[in-house]
Write a structure and sequence with these properties.
The protein is mainly α and about 300 residues long. It has one domain. Helix 2 runs antiparallel to helix 12, helix 7 packs across helix 9 and helix 8 packs antiparallel against helix 15.
Length: about 300
Amino acid sequence: MKNSPDNYTLAVFALIVANMIGGGAPLASKILLRELPPMTILFLRLTIMLVILMPLSLTRFRHLWTHRKQLVLLGLFWVGNLSLFIIGIKFTTAIASSIIYLGVPILVLFEERMMNKSKLLLWQVIGIGLGCTGALFVVLESLGTQSGFGTFHGNILLLLAIVSYSFYLTYSKRLSVHVSPLGLTVGALVSGWAVSLVLMVFFDGVTGLVHVPNLSIASWVSLLYVGIFLGVAMYFLNQWGIRHTSAVVAGAMLYVGTFTAWASGVLFLSEKITFLMIAGGALLVVGVFLTSMMPLLTLRKHSMKRG
């Protein structure tokens, strides 16, 4: 069944709002990392989500159970992104992280083309090249330095995080035919929560949980933000948007979150925007446009001519 123009427009709007919320992730994470270890933050975030979303999905349990294997795999992609991000962001800047995440739609396009065994258009090949150059530019610039790009190993972790996130987006689109946005979120959450518990016990123990009652107001606000807004609102909007558009369009909306992250980094974390950051970001933006938005505009132009 094809999406109506109204559904498509609302889906794009949902993706924009979701990525505006997502742009606050680096700031909230950096505030929390001052007082809590990474895996404890991840576990608390997913626990808040579980408490909110599980009661809403009890009637869907049988349906979700029939797709349990696919949902477990989706959850692994999801928690892989979250865990690598929360560790990596500790060693890099909010601005650098937002630039690296611009590479997601390019990865999504490549993965979809590999799965469908279809050929890439010329401008998509050029876009992939520019996007990869921009992402590598950011990572290599941080090699051996404490510049505005953060550290090399921190940015490498973020590169691995976006690979995991791109698989999450691609696989979500395939599953969205059979499972609702809420079902996808909850299904991935259950397996993701179990993995986060194991990671917390293995890396942090329970020492982080002991400090939770003594968190500062800023950390409490950040914890609620990552649990409710990032964890519930963002992912529900993202899944609904993916269902009515495509994984490529969803990835392309990440540029919205980039501007949010840049603003929060400058205003609250005293980070500086340099020429090299702008250059690397510009390459990624152009690459995203050529790989994802240009084909959509071309198809729309052709459909208008036929109409």
